[in-house]
Amino acid sequence: VETCGGRRGYLDFESRTGDFYFGNAAHIYWSKGQNGFQSIKKLLGYTNELEVEGSDGTVKKIKGEDLAHLLVKGLCHEFRNYIANDKDIKPEVRQRLIDADGKLTPSRAIVAVPNNYTVNKVQAMIDTVKRTHLFKEVHYIYEAEAVMMYYFNLNWAKLPGYQNKTFIVFDMGGATINATAFRIKLTAASRFPNPCSKAAKS
């Protein structure tokens, strides 16, 4: 399966067993350009079934939500392999991410959801991650809020100067452009040292 991003996510299945394979284990059949979709988010919220053609030409039908689940599960598997084996990962970075037994086993997942999504669509995205059974907790945050939190974390010392100022976040996605306005109002808690900084944790 190919998304509209720069890298391809591969999905194939074994017609004899019906098992799906993700990533390097998938030998995708590309001659006719099948097994392509625009966005994983567009797989959710629809009841129609998609057709996935295996490398042997066999066609299997699958619901969009099930395909999204397989892609998320496969991505988690690929990410674990990347952290464990990729030579470009610095040892000190790998050490901070893995557990005492040398494995990457995060207990929480955070799903970034578009600002204009309905409650049902947000829940569908959360459920897609929950179905992997890889996390004890699954939370969500709106994409624009995540951007603002990151921005303020980088500019914490400047927050007093942002009092009553308005910011607009432009989220330019693959098919849409969203704009979200924020207005800053400082509280007593925001005048303390940044809780995310190393100095505050030491």
Secondary structure topology:
Elements: E1 11-13, E2 20-22, E3 49-53, E4 59-63, H1 64-85, H2 91-97, E5 108-113, H3 119-130, E6 137-142, H4 143-154, E7 166-172, E8 177-183, H5 198-201
Parallel strand pairs: 5-6
Antiparallel strand pairs: 1-2, 3-4, 7-8
Walk me through what this model shows:
Helices cover about 30% and strands about 20% of the residues. The protein contains 5 helices and 8 strands. By secondary structure, the chain is α+β, with helices and mostly antiparallel strands. The strands form 4 sheets. A two-stranded antiparallel ribbon has the order 1-2.
Mean pLDDT: 75
Q: What's the gyration radius in Å?
A: 21 Å
Query: Distance N terminus to C terminus?
Result: 46 Å
Q: What is the 3D shape? A: globular
Query: Proportion of β residues?
Result: 15-25%
What about the largest sheet? 2 strands, antiparallel
- Strand count: 8
**Secondary-structure content class:** alpha+beta
Q: List low-pLDDT spans.
A: 1-9, 24-34
Features:
single chain, 202 residues, alpha+beta, two-stranded antiparallel sheet, 5 helices, 8 strands, globular, disordered N terminus
Give a brief description.
The protein is an alpha+beta fold and 202 residues long.
